[in-house]
Amino acid sequence: YNLDQYGLAAEALITGYEVSEWKEPNVLFFSAAALVMDGRSADAVPVLEQLVGGAQGQAKLEWHRALIMAYLELEDTESGAAATERMLSEYPEDPEAWRLAFRYYASAADYESAAVALTVAGYLRPLTRGERNGCTSGGRLLEALRSKRERPFSISIQTASAVCDAVLLRGLRPDFRLWKGIVLLHFSNGLTQ
After folding, report:
1. Going by fewer Cβ within 10 Å, which terminus of the chain is more open, N or C?
2. pLDDT at 138 over 50
3. What's the angle, vertex CA 96, arms to CA 178 and CA 85, rounded to 5?
4. Between helices 176-189 and 111-124, what is the axis angle to 10°?
5. Angle, CA 52 vertex, CA 9 and CA 56 arms, to 5°
6. How far is CA 173 from the centre of its chain?
7. How many CB atoms lie within 10 A of CB 137?
8. Per-residue pLDDT tens digits for 53-99
9. Cβ–Cβ under 8 Å, residues 51 and 32
10. Rounded CA separation 48/45 (Å)
11. Looking at the whole model, is its pTM more than 0.85?
């Protein structure tokens, strides 16, 4: 691994996992990471799917991140979107999961979903300056959303927070589709206060 021989490292890690009596899931993760670094994302996907599938217990966020990035590298947007939604269902209150979803959707040119993910991330943690200004992804995020609306939208943090609080206080754990509906409803209404 330290010699940049990632394919050999991946094979050694997989073999070590198979012969070990402990079956440490991180060994599988490191083997999949080595496969990705060796340019073999297609070979890494089944290993990562096994990890996030729950057979090894609660999937770690980094395992989801690796799977989503592997799908992105393979340009498999359908599987990448499904993996992203699965991650969000397991980590619905983790701002880093929503930030990762934002990055995935923006990279896949699904700017509407990217805006939803970024908005929810903003409910859960302060946005960076670039995120607040809509400059992420070269400003295409806001341009794409505005082009889908008859009039430009604007939404206040107070309004967004009130919606988020109402959903979470009722004990709901909304999935991505529900968040998307909430966020896009507010965008289309052009709320500011």
Report:
1. C
2. no
3. 40
4. 100
5. 80
6. 17
7. 20
8. 988 888 999 999 999 999 999 999 999 999 999 999 899 889 999 99
9. yes
10. 5
11. no
Measuring CA to CA, which residue among 44, 113, 31 is closest to residue 73?
A: 44
For residue 119 the two structure tokens come to 């908005």
| Residue 62, both tokens | 């980094």
Residue 23 burial by Cβ neighbours in a 10 Å radius (0-12, 13-18, 19+): exposed
> Which residue shows structure tokens 């040119």?
109
Secondary structure of the chain as H, E, C letters: CCCCCHHHHHHHHHHHHHHCCCCCHHHHHHHHHHHHHCCCHHHHHHHHHHHHCCCCCCCCHHHHHHHHHHHHHCCCHHHHHHHHHHHHHHCCCCHHHHHHHHHHHHHCCCHHHHHHHHHHHHHHCCCCHHHHHCCHHHHHHHHHHHHCCCCCCCCCHHHHHHHHHHHHHCCCCCCHHHHHHHHHHHHHHCCCC
Which amino acid does the sequence have at 132?
R
